[in-house]
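Sample A.
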Amino acid sequence: MLLPDSKTELVRRGNKVVYDLGDKIVKVFNETKPVSDVFNEALNLARINECGIRSPKALEVSQLENANGWALVTEKVPGTTLAEKMTAEPQRFGEYLEMFVDLQIEIHGYTSPLLNRQRDKFARMIDSLDQLNATTRYNLQERLDGMTKEFKVCHGDFNPSNVIVGDDGQLYVCDWAHATQGSLLPTLPPPTCSLPSTARTRPRPTWSSTATAPTCPCRLCVSGRASSPLPSSLVSAT
């Protein structure tokens, strides 16, 4: 794949750059990104497309010409990210927050039997923690085994910068690299809400288009009904 000179850079993070090609979006990874991860993200997105969640269609995975690395091409959804809207219209922050929460609830209502299993991912992560002794890793695996067995679609990096408010008024979700099927609880914030009580009733924008959501963007968190059996270091990587 050869990128056209007319491309427009949208965002640059870590080992990737995202470009607008006009009618398509291309995510370009450098040589540090394993090829298997690029294909896995494309496969995740294809499975999300098939299960019915509103998301950009996966179009192509290609090796870059005249450069080391690979690219994932998706369709372009005309619109604006929810994070940008929250920043541009702070007076509507509460309304946008409700949309964000309702969208997460909607996503958790879907299933995709061929997605990677969340439980298997956690188990691999626990086993790879060499800085923890064997007893601690065993205890974490025990807690993992005690999790409720569910098979809901979990995005893995659900924040307003990954939600597009389409020109058609619909919400679309992008960036499914970390998607799994499993329990929704590890994807929710801890029950102790970090925002003051006034912020819960009159929210204020606290992130930009390149930042993640605040630590309590859901009704479950505010009501204290969310609880994860795993430490936050693992939950944040779901």
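Sample B.
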Amino acid sequence: MAASKGGLQIVDLSTPTSLRIIGSVNIPYAAAAVDVGTTGYAYVGTSGGIYVIDVRTPTSPEIVASIATSATALATANQLIYALDGEQLKVFDATVPGAPRQIAALRGVTAQALSATGSWLVLATPALSHADTSGGLYLVDVSDPTQPNVIDQAIVPGRTRSATVLNKTVYADDSASTLDILQINPTGPVTTPTPPPCIGDCNSDGRVTVDEILTMVNLALNAPTSNCILGDGEHDGHITVDEILVAVNAALTACPAP
């Protein structure tokens, strides 16, 4: 596990009720992220570089190489390292553990987390607001790792900051108090079956009424938002004028279709 200033720590999970640290290695920078490949090497992301660590002997892990790039999150698959560095997705070939090399970079990436499986990469990108359609989950085709290609996007009800892929199924956290489950297929991830949120639909019946808008106005005057969870599109505990305007629009037109 990435233990911040404690570096990389290896935990014995053979007895789940009695976990114990059996190995560790110090790293010059605080460890922010870690993933372990299938060949016995761990990759640790820090603000000062990515460290390749031999963990084939768990009690004596050893740094064998480093990459001069920061990484706030990373994932590995097929002896490749995928790392988020600022607004870039960087790809490194780690076929030779002691001499990893960068083979690609994709710019304009604002994801905060990523998960890899086979020739797919899933990026979790939190939206700036309920009206921001650039957030959600992105599917990246890395069948040619030298040319990563974004092929699809799935917008989720709230903000997502993490995602895990298991057997081509994506599990993503969501600030809208839900777990989003998506299936990877050749055309990209398809959400199931969570409908998009309808700001102002306090009773979750698929429409916004005048009474619900009046409820939101009252809640905006420092009343608890628990009386209308779906009025709080930002999920920040407050109802704003912008959110009331979105609800008015939904009342005049219609809630988004599932």
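B remarks: Residues 241-252 form the longest helix (12 residues). The chain is about 10% helix and 40% strand.
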